[in-house]
Structure formats: structure tokens, C-alpha cells
Amino acid sequence: MKSRTLGNRGPRVSAIGLGCMSIGIADTYTSSVRDEASAVALIHRALDLGVTLLDTADIYGVSEQYVGKALAGRRGDAVLATKFGFVSPRPGVERGIDGSPRHVREACDASLRRLAVDHIDIYYLHRVDPAVPIEETVGAMGELVREGKVKFLGLSEASAATIRRAHKVHPIAAVQTEYSLFSRDPEDEVLPTLRELGIGLVAYSPLGRGFLGGRFNKLQDLAKGDWRLNHPRFQGENFEKNLALVDRLRELAAKRGCTPAQLALAWLLSAHDDVVPIPGTSNPARLEENAAAADIHLSADDLDSIDRLSPKGVAAGTRYNAESLALVDH
């Protein structure tokens, strides 16, 4: 597995990581890892393939516990990332965000216990709390670094302006945001800002929440409780239009001798040497398929062909529903 460094001062990680949202959360995705043995086996296979970056969060059900079990005896093989910020629903609020200094410490200690480790390699603020100045949140996160509980700090779905403010308080190693052929908004402000400041970009949902991997051919392929059904790209005419886009990419992938998922991941890696995608999966075969994308090099002509087929803004519908969009880009 090839590797790259996150930003100027971040950790060295595998070129492709593993997103662990589908490990431990029942009914979130049509296919999820719901038992400990399967989760441990999947993560061990990832480590065996050279996938070192494991990304989880305290809101992902029992994901942290499963990741911790898998790392018992193999802690040195992984760069462990987790996130905090989402809190239990409050009266009148479906889901809240807490970026207060008190919660920073409480959440970190709780994650360390669940993961059964003595430190976290990358600790992300999952979403920016509009009610708490980012300087206060990151200041408290910086204390965790000084105490040895955390090695590097990260933000998730933060605006360029917030990233700049945070970086002045304590160096930010990585910013996590949705980035794929279907979601190229980071190219406007976030990615240029990260490059200016020497911060790495970790791309979650690099396969367009399954679209770009050719994971489904009709809406009925998604289980009734699959959370993606709440978002516009998976509804009505948008779904059909997005499937048609994927069909065109599938043809290009076939000519290139790879799968659609590998083409989408290779596009991120070939177009940007400072981006690390973290596709999630519950299937060992898909894990191996994704990891193999690190060995695919796309030429300038390949990249031009992909851009023509899937230019910025090509996806039909917004990437989140209104409620979830309200939590990003603060």
C-alpha cells in the first residue's frame, strides 16, 4: 500500500484509509457490520492490506469498541482517528452539537475508554458548534495534545474561515469533508485554504455514498431504513439521473480495466497528492477492491475524460437534506 503524509506536519498514512461508520451502526446502511467478530476480521484484513488509517467516531454506535478490539495487539499498525461533537438529542432538538471545552475533555476520555487505547492519533471535531467560538474548542483540544491523549488535531466539515481561525490556536493536521466526483465543493475554498496552510484533506464518502461504486441499480436495492433515503440524491428523478451518470463512468472504468469504485478513488489520488480517501465498507471483497485502487495511475488524458463525464456540480440533488446541511460549513 502506498502512503502519503497528511499536510506538512501530520502523520504518514496509507493512501487509502477505512471509514468505520458502517462498522457497528445497525440499520444505518443497507449493509453494515453488526457483530464484533466480523468487524474485527474486516479491520484485521484492512491492516494486512496495509490500510493504516482507521476513521471512526463516538456517534457511530459500537464502532469505537469494535475498532478497539481489532487493535488489541496491533495498535502500532494503525493511525487511529476518531471524532466528537454530536451529542444526545435535547428537547426540541433532534441532534445537537457540543464543542464546549468541558465536552472536549469528557468526549475524549470516553473515546479512549471505548477504544481501550492510551492515545488517539487524530482527534476531529465532528461538526463545528456555532454556539462556541472555535478558538475555545480547539484550545481545549490542544490541551489534550499537551497531555499526550491526542497526537494531531482535525476538523470535519468546517468552512475555510473557521479552519484559518482554528489553525492559529493550534496546528490542524487534517480536515475531513465529503469529496468525490459527485461532491466537489471543497475545490472552491476549502482545498486551496488547506494547501496554503499545509493541512491534509481526508475525503469521506469518496464513492458518493455508494453511487460511484455501482452498489445499486434501483431504489429498491436500499433497505427501508437506510439513512441515504433521506437525502435528495437518492430521491425521485435525482436518483435516476445519478444512476445514468454512473453508467457512463462504468463504461470508462471498463476501458481502463478497473471497477467504477476504483476509478473514483484513483481519480482522487491521481488528481491530488494531498488527499486521502476513506471509503467505508462491510464487505472484505469490497475492501480489497478499494485498497487496490491505490495502485491505479490515471494519466492526464484519463483525468480529462473523467472531468468531461462528471464535471463539478453534475450530481442531481444536494448531498444532504436541509437539516444535515445546516450542520456543515460553519
**SSE string:** EEEHEHEEEHEHEHEHEHHEHHH
* Count of extended strands: 12
- Using the alpha-carbon principal axes, give the shape: globular
* Main beta sheet: 8 strands, parallel
List keywords for this structure.
330 residues, alpha/beta, two-stranded antiparallel sheet
Topology:
Blueprint: E1 3-5, E2 12-14, E3 18-19, H1 36-48, E4 53-55, H2 63-71, E5 79-84, E6 86-87, E7 96-97, H3 101-115, E8 120-125, H4 134-146, E9 150-156, H5 160-169, E10 172-178, H6 190-197, E11 200-204, H7 236-256, H8 260-271, E12 275-277, H9 284-292, H10 300-309, H11 322-325
Helix pairs in contact: 1-2, 3-4, 4-5, 5-6
Explain what this protein looks like in three dimensions.
- With 330 residues, this protein is α/β, with parallel strands linked by helices.
- 38% of the residues lie in helices and 15% in strands.
- It has helices spanning 36-48, 63-71, 101-115, 134-146, 160-169, 190-197, 236-256, 260-271, 284-292, 300-309, 322-325; strands at residues 3-5, 12-14, 18-19, 53-55, 79-84, 86-87, 96-97, 120-125, 150-156, 172-178, 200-204, 275-277.
- The strands form 3 sheets. The chain has an 8-stranded parallel beta sheet with strand order 3-4-5-8-9-10-11-12. The chain has a two-stranded antiparallel sheet with strand order 1-2. It has a two-stranded antiparallel sheet with strand order 6-7.
- α1 (36-48) packs across α2.
- The two termini are 35 Å apart.
